[in-house]
Amino acid sequence: MRRHRSAKIVATLGPSSSSEAMIEQLFMAGVDVFRLNFSHGSHEDHQKRHAIIRNLEEKVGRPIGILMDLQGPKLRIGTFREKAIFLEEGQTFILDQEETTGDKTRVFLPHPEIFEAIQEGEDLLLDDGKIRLQVVKATPQRIETRVKTAGPLSERKGLNVPTVILPISPMTFKDREDLAFGLRLGMDWIALSFVQCPKDVLEARELIGNQAGIVSKLEKPLAIKYLEEIVELSDGIMIARGDLGVEMLPEEVPSIQKRIIQCCRKAGKPVAVCTQMLESMIKSPTPTRAEASDVATAVYDGADAVMLSAESASGDYPLESVMIMNRIITHVEQDPFYRKMQEANLPEPKPTTSDAITAAARQVAHTLQAAAIVTFTSTGETTLRAARERPEAPILAITPEVKIARKLAFVWGVHPLKSREVSTFSEVVGDACLLAEQEGFAHVNDRIIVTAGVPFRVAGSTNILRIARIKVPQDR
Hints:
- It is built from 17 helices and 21 strands.
- It is of the alpha/beta class.
- It is elongated.
């Protein structure tokens, strides 16, 4: 079950991919983490998918990550008498708190928080940015705007406020109910929508604690102002380019994507590039060349994972989407230029024992052409440091904690395994040699690099490096 690539594949489950047979096919084709999107489907639907994944995990003997994606608050306008209107450029259009059907001149906006925060001169976006309004005057009950970008507008369309931090929690009542359900099931990662600033992550942390990893979805330009702080407080990041592209200019998104990846690389936090990666494969068995290039660019930049959304959830070709994504990643990582890019963007190690040991492990593995770097970890920190170095050798992570093994399925270059409890470093080395051979990473006489932190179960205590050679077992 070894993957011969480092970047991971996240695939969303949905109507096209909920059967036991299809989920197994997707995993065998290359999926490392399955995403359950709580914007759609019932708790019963998600519980069935969760059970299928856990049964599959037991069948294949390899940890599989599950990412729960919370819906977050959705801002929408009210209804129209004629169901739809057409807004002319330059005309006045009112958003107010009168709970009546709208017309060509006004519409109900059921979000008082927007009235509190919006100011004259700000822009409002409707229908995924297709219509742009500029605020002329704002009061606690009424926002008067001028139409900057004309077009048709139907009722209940979404509204975006790109330049103002809204006094809205990232977690609605629905999200809190969903979260409690997901934590009871044992989700590995929780994706947090509508993150605007660091306190949104802290709010989620109070509810989640260490029960699951928090993945902050960067989908609002305002969050980029607090990028370093949000990355520091999160366990991982998702670059939600579709939503980012609504609230900022399209030409700004690629550079923002690279900036986010570099920030996550420096912090040693896993980052996934998401949205519209193979969009045409919702209806086509093959992607466009531009889409293939898009996936490749994310891999060249050093992203930990690339994600499929509708392609695998509701598209006509979920299996083919995973297969082509797997092929693109594998091809990129075989390119010598890819290795040069990873080395060129290597973050400087911090002046700590843990970083010094991990950086040394990468260098020793390169010098000795070691078959693998084996990290023993109880918290995941030792393995995250190893992945931050982007070594040439694959990373075999062994941990006595199955939840940690599942979380590490999201991380670049890591092959996670549940191992037995150990009490001495010599036991770690013995297990490392045994598992490296059993999993097909090393053969007799190959050398491996083993890192761990002693005492065990102390986060950030990586302090031992050992070079070990795979020996012929006594019973052979």
